[in-house]
Every structure is written in C-alpha cells, then in structure tokens.
Amino acid sequence: MASSRWNRIRNVVWPRMGFRRYGTYLRKRVLRLSASPHAVGAGVASGAAVSMFPLIGLHFILGFVLAFFTRGNMIAAAIGTAWGNPFTFPFFFAASYNIGHWILGGEPIDAASLDATGDKLSEGLFSGGLTAIWPAFKTMFVGAVPLAIIVYAVFYVLVRVLVTRFRMLRQARMAARRAERSGDMGS
Fold first, then answer.
1. CA nearest 36: which of 73, 63, 75?
2. Residue 156 lies in a domain
C-alpha cells in the first residue's frame, strides 16, 4: 500500500519513462494531432501561457478556457500545461513576482523586507488569512500577465511552424512511398 502511494507521488514529480522520453512523447503527440496548425499552436500556447499564473490546480481549466476563446485544440492545451511543472514553477513565480513588483512601482526588495516576510511565514502561511498572502499573490498575478502574453506568442509561432513543417515533410514522404509503390507495380 505504502509502496504504491510512493510510486504515484514519484510519478507526479518524475515521469516513469524519464524526462527525455516524456518530452519526445509529448512532442510527437502534439505533432500528430489531427487539428489545424492554428488549433494545435493556439492550444499548446494556451496551456503554456496559463502556467505563468500562480493558480496551481487551475491550469488545465484555464488552459481549456483560453484555448476555447482562441479556437485552440483542447488536447494541445492540456499538453501545453506540462510547461508548468514542479521544476519550472519556482522560476515562473519568481519572474512574475519581480515583474509585478516592477509594474506596481514597488520599493526595491531589501534584506529587512525579506526578514519581515520570513517572520510572517514562520507564523504560518495562512495564519493571517488571505490578507497575509494577498499582496504577494496580487503582485505575482500582475507580473504573470505580460509573461503569459510573451509565452503565448512564442509558443504559438513555434508550434504552428513545427506542425506545418512536420505535415509537409510527412506529405512528401507519403508521396514518395506512393510513387515508389506505383513504380514497382508498373515493372
């Protein structure tokens, strides 16, 4: 019982097949989707963009909503949310906090403010209720908006180009095979 629970937890953090094979699997899965290049690109971009927000647990839903409004593929949106994972979230959230802090015109962060934040957290993250974490959450949310826009644009263009190129190469391979087969039959 404990072994299976440990395996499930480990599989959430570290894929059983390894990261390289998992990345290859996701790439092939995206390239082989039957939707249009726009739909695949918009879907993956939607999933990746919502991963910038500090709303862990809602990324799939938000990715689906954004994909719906941009006419993206829902499966591609689910795959795009893999961009946000336990290894990348600390970087995304630190970047969104710093950008949000800059946008909101906050004071430069110094050691005294970090110590005060550490003192609040040592009392318990939720001991002060939502009011204790709201300033940081709001700052991260504001900073995540420009990050999400940039990530959406980069992923959309990249995935759309890759899907279009993949399909053209696949069509050429299939045409070559058909020509080869028809040449063999004519002999």
1. 73
2. yes
**CA-CA-CA-CA torsion sign (160, 164, 169, 171):** positive
Residue 54: exposure state from Cβ atoms within 10 A (0-12, 13-18, ≥19): buried
- Is there a domain that residue 2 lies in? no
The half-sphere exposure of 138 on its side-chain side, counting CA atoms within 13 A, is: 9
Q: What is the pLDDT of residues 66-117, one digit of tens each?
A: 999 999 988 888 888 888 878 888 898 889 988 998 998 876 665 556 556 5
What is the span of the domain harbouring residue 129? 37-186
Three-state DSSP class for residue 124: coil
Instruction: Report the domain count for the chain.
Output: 1
Length of the chain: 187
Does the residue 9 lie in any domain? no
